[in-house]
């Protein structure tokens, strides 16, 4: 069992007001014993970060980048340990968990390269003056991260914040606290005292942290939590940087290969048991390919190997816990009650753990929660449409704006889709993928601000306009 500690003012302490336990979602066995941060812990962490901020901001960017590179090297060496912790805490198949750690390593290295060249710019002013725009760190960043891809997402927010000269209070999800603790230990080994703090606990701890006098709250997680954070930041004046929920559509156009389309849909809907921010959440398939597409999608479900994440043969692990399974199944049951047809899955299995089968629902309607809200589970709800126009119109009708995927053989439809879909990321003929450094603005209920890429460095810095000119009269030393 992992016995998690908190990092406050450079010291690892048990601290907390009581402790809680995280269990393995595959079999219910205890995994992590975790402290719940007190108000005093939160206050002490923020004060330590504030005290360390000026010195870290003055540290040359090349030195900050070197610290990040060393941390990336250590994380790479400890990749198996981090992957095993994530699998134990939230059930992700160990191969996928290791891929998440590898993505985190690459992200730290990317920001180590970008940080020192993230400069300002000079302006064309008077010939005897100097005008420039200079970047400075914002100060103290509260990073509140999710459980579904704990290492990769945390490395993005922490790496960008640290390399730009901010100090950080890191609060990982209460569902993956040991994973966050192990990551924090690796990072802290290479940082000065007070630059990084770790607090653990539930939403109440996160709320206490966002109510403090921090300069940025960076959050990846649910829309409800994101809105609460935005309200808290409005009161304190902190910048809110949010990537929240989504209900990402997949459009399957006419004349595409239905076998290939079903493989893409299955990957998008079932990877990490559907617990991915940009997972396929709702599918609009053209009538001309619908029957073959649905048949192939059901076959993909039947072929998936379901089991505990620690088994290297597993393709579909459990959901993060039984509470989340209740949420997923409630949406499926409500859809069936409203007329949806279960083509595969759709039932809570007997036995231990939080397993849920890959599920395909046909005859879905716009008003159903599975088509309107974020399910975050291995559920593929399908609506058959008569035209690309209809599919695009339905896909655009959502309170979210995170991502969308389009499978089409028509260049004109592809061009129209990426221009009209009101989301931050559009993927044509692939449900996942993209070049390194890609970044996007989530919209509406899905958040605000860049959460990845070089642009995240801009989000975590402030720009100062500077004008220098000679003093009046004689100035021999100018």
TrEMBL record:
Q: Which UniProt keywords apply?
A: Oxidoreductase
> Molecular function (GO) terms listed?
oxidoreductase activity, acting on the aldehyde or oxo group of donors, NAD or NADP as acceptor
Q: Which Pfam families match?
A: Aldedh
| InterPro entries per UniProt | Ald_DH/histidinol_DH, Ald_DH_C, Ald_DH_CS_CYS, Ald_DH_N, Aldehyde_DH_dom
Cite the Aldehyde dehydrogenase domain residue spans from the record: 12-466
Recorded superkingdom: Bacteria
Record's family?
Belongs to the aldehyde dehydrogenase family.
Spell out the protein name for this chain: Succinate-semialdehyde dehydrogenase / glutarate-semialdehyde dehydrogenase
């Amino acid at each position: 069992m992992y016995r998690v500690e908190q990092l406050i003012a450079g010291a690892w302490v048990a601290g907390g007001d009581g402790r809680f336990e995280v269990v393995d979602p595959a079999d219910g066995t205890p995994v992590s014993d975790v402290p719940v941060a007190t108000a005093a812990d939160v206050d002490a962490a923020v004060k330590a970060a504030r005290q360390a901020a000026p010195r870290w901001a003055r540290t040359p960017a090349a030195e900050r980048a070197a610290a990040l590179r060393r941390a990336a090297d250590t994380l790479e060496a400890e990749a198996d340990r981090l992957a095993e912790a994530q699998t134990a805490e939230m059930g992700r198949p160990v191969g996928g968990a290791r891929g998440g750690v590898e993505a985190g390593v690459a992200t730290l290295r990317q920001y180590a390269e970008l940080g020192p060249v993230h400069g300002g710019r000079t302006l064309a002013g008077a010939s005897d003056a100097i005008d420039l725009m200079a970047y400075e760190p914002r100060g103290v960043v509260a990073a509140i991260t999710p459980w579904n891809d704990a290492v990769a997402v945390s490395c993005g927010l922490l790496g960008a914040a640290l390399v730009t000269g901010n100090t950080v209070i890191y609060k990982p999800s209460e569902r993956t606290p040991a994973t966050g603790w192990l990551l924090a230990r690796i990072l802290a080994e290479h940082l000065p005292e007070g630059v990084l703090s770790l607090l653990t606990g539930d939403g109440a701890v996160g709320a206490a942290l966002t109510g403090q006098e921090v300069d940025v709250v960076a959050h990846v997680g649910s829309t409800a939590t994101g809105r609460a954070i935005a309200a808290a930041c409005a009161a304190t004046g902190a910048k809110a940087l949010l990537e929240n929920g989504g209900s990402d559509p997949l459009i399957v156009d006419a004349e595409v290969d239905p076998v290939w389309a079903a493989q893409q849909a299955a990957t998008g809907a079932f990877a990490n048991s559907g617990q991915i921010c940009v997972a396929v959440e709702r599918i609009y398939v053209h009538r001309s390919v619908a029957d073959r597409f649905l048949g192939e999608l059901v076959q993909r479900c039947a072929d998936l190997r379901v089991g505990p994440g620690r088994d290297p043969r597993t393709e579909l692990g459990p959901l993060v816990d039984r509470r989340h399974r209740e949420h997923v199944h409630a949406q499926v049951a409500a859809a069936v009650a409203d007329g949806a047809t279960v083509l595969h899955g759709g039932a809570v299995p007997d036995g231990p753990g939080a397993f849920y089968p890959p599920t395909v629902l046909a005859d879905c309607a716009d008003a159903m929660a599975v088509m309107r809200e974020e399910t975050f589970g291995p559920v593929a709800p399908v609506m058959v449409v008569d035209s690309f126009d209809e599919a695009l119109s339905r896909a655009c009708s959502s309170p979210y704006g995170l991502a969308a995927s389009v499978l089409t053989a028509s260049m004109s439809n592809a061009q129209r889709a990426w221009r009209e879909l009101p989301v931050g990321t559009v993927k044509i003929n692939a449900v996942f993928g993209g070049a390194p450094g890609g970044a996007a603005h989530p919209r509406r209920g899905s958040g605000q601000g860049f959460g990845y890429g070089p642009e995240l460095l801009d989000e975590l810095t402030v720009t100062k306009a500077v004008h220098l000119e000679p003093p009046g009269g004689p100035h021999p030393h100018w």
